[in-house]
User: Fold these one by one.
Assistant:
Number 1:
Amino acid sequence: QEFANQCFGNRADNGKGRQMPIHYGSNKHNYFTVASTVATQLSHAVGAAYALKMDGRDACTVTYFGDGGTSTGDFHAALNFAAVMEAPVIFFCRNNGWAISTPVSDQFRSDGIVVRGLAYGVLSIRVDGNDALAIFSAVQAARRMAIRESRPVLIEALTYRAGHHSTSDDSTKYRAAHEIELWRTERDPVSRFRKWIEGNGWWSDEAESELRSSVRKQLLHAIQVAEKVEKPPIADIFTDVYDSPPSNLREQETLLRETIKRHPQDYPSEFPR
Ligand SMILES: Cc1ncc(C[n+]2csc(CCOP(=O)(O)OP(=O)(O)O)c2C)c(N)n1
């Protein structure tokens, strides 16, 4: 339900409707909000990991990013900082070959990402990103090392982005349709895992359709509930950054309210004013 609230940016959304849809976060679940600015989450994760270490907690942080994220300065700063401060953080890179339309060959000439971790003195693991069990085992080992040895670990999961980057992207404009099809049909990690559990007699078509229909019902319910919840008030746009808002922000709020009054038809009525 929390996730649906976030997607609808309603009053119950932890982010008060300020984040892009699916950029969910939750204090309750120790889940830091997904960062819209690519790779900024890496240094946050290092800081949080260092705090866990100082507090003597038996825990680590894990942060996820794409190959595109490794083409930013933040990636390098975060890796080096984590290595030097011996912060218990897992850097999980999904190297799917593309940063939106930029292929990895236009991003770097190193042998993927794993060598960069090694260069910074960070234990680094390369794993088949389309093999669920291999991922499970790599993450389990990384977590153990990060916590027991109090140090960062980098995981490079080799995979392919079978979908478009987002709803505004059409990836057939920059890569061959047959390539996408191949990964979808022959290398899909979900079908692969499903085949494995079916082969072991732990799953079946009936179990699959039962699960799918029950999850679908739960999702539709969550969406229907989220749709009906009121939107956050306009005032929320201007809060939470400054203890007392500076004059330029106060001016902007006044301007916005005057504009809404002048053009009420252009502003959705479900936003409490
Ligand atoms: C700092 C920053 N620069 C640029 C963008 C625009 N942008 C959004 S996603 C993206 C590519 C990210 O690549 P990757 O993490 O590999 O994602 P994938 O294409 O695999 O989904 C870019 C450049 C951004 N959000 N933030």
Note: Residues 237-266 form one domain.
Number 2:
Amino acid sequence: MNKPENNMSLTGDAPAAISTTQKIATAIGLVGLFIMVLSIANVEFPNKTLFLILSLGMITAGTVIFANDAYLGKHAGIKNDGVWFKSNTSRGFWAWIVGISLTLFYVILYWYPEYLGLREDGENTGIIALFDPLSRLISGHGASQWFVYGTLYTLAILIFGYKFILKYRHNKYEIYRTYSVMFFQLGFAFLIPEILMRFNQPYFNPANIWPLNYDFFAGYKMSEFFTAGNIGMMMFIFGIISIFVITPILTYKYGKRWYCSWVCGCGGLAETAGDPYRHLSDKSKFAWNVERWVIHSVLVFVVVMTIAVIYSYLMENPGGGWFTKDIFLWSSAGFLTLIFALIMIFKREQLAKDAKMGAIGYFAIIMSIIAINYFSGNYRIFFFDGHQLRAWYGFLIGAAFSGVIGVGFYPIFGNRVWCRFGCPMAAVLGMQQRLFSKFRITTNGGQCISCGNCSTYCEMGIDVRAYAQKGENIVRSSCVGCGICAAVCPRGVLKLENGSREDRINSEEVLLGNDVDLMTLVHQKSERTKD
Ligand code: SF4
Ligand code: SF4
């Protein structure tokens, strides 16, 4: 007798979670992870090198087998089947387990590294000792918790990058930019700094730019640069050029995507390991408002903290010739005033009312704090000591926000929580992208069938469909140019472009499907209305 069909849904049953091969692959990967857990529990392995290779190898093999089975046997094209049905990708039981495990890992990593086996006096134990052989091989030193983290982080970008490339293999843009983030993570963020340590040079990741790298101007870091001879000086100068020359030029030409989706390690992890969670981003207008206030507040915090830190450094090390703490302070105030004035004079019509109010408010507060403290002779230029401000920033933003919430909560809030709500680098690049860049996503509105794939898979919570339906260019500060909206669109509506800045923001082209004749009519009509 036939089994009765109880499912009334037109689309049939929910897709099976994972195949048998994928289950075996998951088990292999978990055994690899289990070796690490055993090492945390201080199980003594007879041969650390062998067990480290075994652990990393099994994690890699498990992911590769899983990815091959999930994508290679199928036609090229986006495969997001069943994301809203699987527990791990729909905020179900496994999502919480993954989220809580990641969060715990970050808490121990940042605040209790001794539980991972870090020993200040004597030989490391636990998982840190397991990584000692690899660390000695690359940097000549024993491992630290940051080496363990850096290795796992890099491995995650490489193996999930492989998975991502298979999934999006029909799309050249996605393939190239994934190779790019894999390259920058492995070479710039992992190997170069470790190899520099081998030669007793300062730890320096050339791809980590201030303000993301909030320690770049910290007193201890500047002392490291200035005492390391020519190479230290070159690093310092390269860091400054990255902030004031490379970043503005590349953002002008390509938008913030050159960094957020092609170079940055945070973006790299979000795009690869975080890819299964991209649809979880909040698309509401409320989230958009929170995003703008929070990310710009973090930016103000990092600017204030950096000014205070450099001011303290110059006060404690007054031998810098003409470049005294006072000259630094007033040139910083002058620079901020110049930026503020330029935006208000030339770009104010592109700012929403709350953005204008926010900018004026923040500017007034920073300037009055500088003035009050300076003229009252208080060396703590922002009421607090620069070192203290840096410590708070490191705790609140550098550790709690970017690590614990930013990655730990991937399975709950989506993969770009940090990039969207917290990263000050994204705030700087986003401002420039919105006001002074050639980048935009063009929309061929007439082709849009309103399926909503683009909005669903936009990790930054942008309602892409709302723009597409109107044939309006997407020029949003938060857009990281990942290109996924264009990749998942079944109608080829969206295109990431760098072009003339003329008419880049075209919010007038509403509901017309880019019909040129109709547009002419609208322009004539609006001219008549003005008359
Ligand atoms: S709008 Fe498109 S390119 Fe921009 S962040 Fe969203 S999905 Fe990525
Ligand atoms: S994915 Fe394409 S067709 Fe679907 S709503 Fe977005 S732009 Fe329109």
Note: Strands lie at 439-443, 494-498.
